[in-house]
């Protein structure tokens, strides 16, 4: 290739971002991969090349259980954020006619994001607790006699918090894709005799797929990498891969934590790789 | 001529809040004719078309097809089909599936609907590209597909919303011949909205000129061009001079104006060579600039230059009085 002035300028323009990514993304990942092959005892870390961490990880039934729990959280959260996110985005994009109203309602959706994740999570606790607002209300209505135990510190509360925290990550990309759908297509579908539901299934959903896919990637990576939500909302009674890693770190078992992190990273990448085979998101980016 | 199978607009009105887009228009479209709705932007022609298609609600009045008021029916139940300005092809479906879309909505099975779609693609000469996606087609090809998709519903009236405006001039002329041929072959009514008078004249059996939410004039293309009823029509159709004689407005075709020894005195202000013809613009007292179109032979046989005094003449019979 001939090196022209333009190519040099091009490389220079790309350089700052490349440096940032190399320094703050690629280098740490390489470090984690290297550390994952080290050995550790209770009080020391030994640089070596050993498969000990991986052997332990793949040999332990706990790993499989925790990965299964992580997938369960990810799947249920995904399904619910998708259902809610699609509905909200659809309503905003196709039922709100005035643009001012659209922007106002969209901003309304983002207001919860002005507070931190932890505060939003913790605020569920007095609501869902044994003597919380939810239980007291249900008892006073006579719906139940005993407080519901599964409202807090359960899979229910964990998934509820996840859905609450991450639905917006579904709404935004789906709304964005929907807004780009040519309104004439909806009319053309009607002109061709499609009912509202048929238009949804045959026109809107296929054209919204890239947005759904981007939202899916956001939600999956967030949920699969999370540890704090699971810890708070389950009262430390549930585990996912993130908690496995955070426990190892708390015990200063960095090599073991690194190995788990590498396995988690690969798992998430494989899942995303599979998803991307189904939908081409390139034109959305 | 009235038959049982015509499309009729009765006091059709469209209001958007306080603005009236279409003001109580009445018109009967003869079956099997090529009709052009012509007018400047904002004249109400698109609103009229969209009301007929069912994509815009009717504020008042009725749309009757075959004697039945269709104004409350959903678009697909009206016996009309619409071809959209930007074609509105479904980007995620192949050409064949785009054409078969309405059949799929009706629940026709795959083999039958694909066979029917191929039949229509054959008609518009697009069968060989049936597996392509719309983005892989040129503008003209997309338009053919849109046409096939509209025709697959077997409409009695095909509504075309500025169908040629997205094409380059060369393709536009070719597609307009194509449209005319299809209309003749199918024998259904084509209702074509356009703001180009040349397009309307080239295509239409009947031209309906709209302005300010009402129909200014309707009739055969030749009649509308030769005998414009109002000043607006004369100006909009082009090729006419509007002259004031005895305080009344008259239209005279530019090619009927001669430069002669007698007639209205005027000063030549501009000369424009147009290839086959020459347009001489002359300014007479108390008149707007008058254009005389003459063959280049006639023009070059006597030497005329800007600033010279000439006399404008025409046969009395070609002068056409305009309604105020």
From TrEMBL, chain A:
Gene3D superfamilies from the UniProt entry: MetI-like
ABC transmembrane type-1 domain location: 67-275
Keywords: Cell membrane, Membrane, Transmembrane, Transmembrane helix, Transport
Membrane topology category: Multi-pass membrane protein
Highest taxon of the lineage: Bacteria
Transmembrane segments: 12-38, 73-93, 105-125, 156-175, 254-279
Major subcellular location class: membrane
UniProt-annotated location(s): Cell membrane
Pfam families: BPD_transp_1 (PF00528)
Family: Belongs to the binding-protein-dependent transport system permease family. CysTW subfamily.
Listed PANTHER family: INNER MEMBRANE ABC TRANSPORTER PERMEASE PROTEIN YDCU-RELATED, INNER MEMBRANE ABC TRANSPORTER PERMEASE PROTEIN YDCU-RELATED-RELATED
Protein name: ABC transporter permease
Species assigned in the record: Thioclava sediminum
TrEMBL record, chain B:
PROSITE patterns hit by this protein: ABC_TRANSPORTER_1, ABC_TRANSPORTER_2
Domain of life of the organism encoding this protein: Bacteria
Keywords, comma-separated and alphabetical: ATP-binding, Nucleotide-binding, Transport
Pfam families for the chain: ABC_tran, TOBE_2
InterPro entries: AAA+_ATPase, ABC_SmlMolc_Importer, ABC_transporter-like_ATP-bd, ABC_transporter-like_CS, Mo/tungstate-bd_C_term_dom, P-loop_NTPase, Transp-assoc_OB_typ2
SMART domains registered for this protein in UniProt: AAA
ABC transporter domain sequence ranges: 7-237
One annotated GO molecular function: ATP binding
Entry protein name: Fe3+/spermidine/putrescine ABC transporter ATP-binding protein
């Amino acid at each position: 290739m001939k090196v022209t002035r333009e190519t040099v300028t091009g490389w220079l323009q790309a350089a700052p971002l490349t440096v940032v990514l190399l320094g703050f993304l690629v280098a740490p990942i390489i470090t984690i991969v290297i550390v994952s092959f080290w050995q550790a005892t209770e009080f020391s870390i030994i640089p070596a090349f050993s498969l000990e961490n991986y052997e332990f990880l793949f040999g332990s039934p706990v790993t499989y259980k925790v990965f299964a729990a992580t997938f369960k959280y990810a799947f249920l959260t995904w399904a619910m954020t998708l259902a809610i996110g699609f509905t909200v985005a659809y309503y905003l994009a196709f039922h709100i006619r005035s643009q001012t109203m659209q922007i106002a309602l969209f901003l309304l959706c983002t207001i919860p994001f002005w507070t931190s994740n932890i505060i939003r999570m913790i605020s569920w606790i007095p609501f869902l607790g044994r003597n919380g607002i939810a239980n007291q209300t249900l008892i006073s209505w006579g719906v139940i006699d005993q407080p519901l135990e599964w409202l807090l510190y359960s899979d229910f509360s964990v998934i509820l918090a996840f859905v609450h925290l991450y639905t917006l990550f579904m709404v935004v990309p789906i709304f964005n894709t929907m807004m780009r759908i040519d309104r004439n297509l909806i009319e053309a579908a009607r002109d061709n005799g499609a009912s509202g539901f048929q238009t949804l299934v045959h026109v809107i959903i296929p054209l919204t797929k890239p947005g759904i896919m981007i939202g899916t990637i956001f939600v999956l990576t967030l949920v699969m990498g999370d540890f704090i939500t699971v810890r708070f909302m389950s009262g430390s009674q549930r585990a996912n891969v993130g908690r496995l890693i955070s426990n190892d770190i708390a015990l200063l078992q960095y090599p073991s934590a690194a190995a788990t992190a590498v396995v988690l990273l690969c798992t998430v990448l494989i899942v995303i790789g599979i998803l991307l085979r189904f939908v081409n998101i390139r034109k959305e980016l | 001529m009235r038959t049982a199978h015509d499309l009729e607009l009765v006091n059709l009105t469209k209001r958007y809040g306080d603005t009236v887009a279409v003001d109580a228009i009445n018109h009967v479209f003869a079956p099997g004719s090529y009709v052009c709705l012509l007018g400047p932007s904002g004249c109400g022609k698109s609103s009229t078309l969209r009301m007929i298609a069912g994509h815009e609600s009717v504020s008042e009045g009725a749309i009757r097809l075959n004697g039945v008021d269709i104004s409350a029916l959903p678009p697909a139940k009206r016996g009309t089909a619409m071809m959209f300005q930007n074609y509105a092809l479904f980007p995620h479906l192949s050409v064949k599936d785009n054409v078969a879309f309405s059949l799929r909505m009706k629940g026709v099975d795959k083999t039958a609907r694909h066979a029917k779609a191929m039949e229509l693609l054959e008609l518009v000469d697009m069968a060989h590209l049936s597996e392509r996606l719309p983005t892989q087609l040129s503008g003209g090809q997309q338009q053919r597909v849109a046409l096939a998709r509209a025709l697959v519903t077997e409409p009695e009236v095909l509504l075309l919303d500025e169908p040629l405006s997205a094409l380059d001039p060369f393709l536009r002329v070719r597609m307009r011949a194509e449209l005319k041929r299809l209309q003749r072959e199918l024998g259904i009514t084509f209702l074509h909205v356009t703001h180009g008078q040349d397009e309307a004249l080239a295509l239409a059996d009947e031209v309906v000129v709209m302005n300010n939410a009402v129909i200014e004039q309707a009739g055969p293309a030749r009649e509308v061009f030769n005998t414009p009823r109002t000043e607006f029509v004369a100006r909009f159709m082009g090729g006419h001079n509007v002259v004031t004689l005895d305080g009344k407005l008259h239209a005279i075709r530019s090619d009927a104006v001669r430069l002669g020894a007698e007639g209205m005195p005027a000063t030549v202000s501009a000369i424009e060579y147009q290839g086959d013809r020459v347009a001489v613009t002359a300014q007479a007292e108390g008149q707007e600039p008058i254009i005389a179109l003459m063959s280049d032979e006639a023009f070059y046989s006597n030497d005329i230059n800007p600033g010279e005094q000439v006399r404008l003449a025409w046969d009395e019979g070609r002068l056409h009085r305009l309604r105020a």
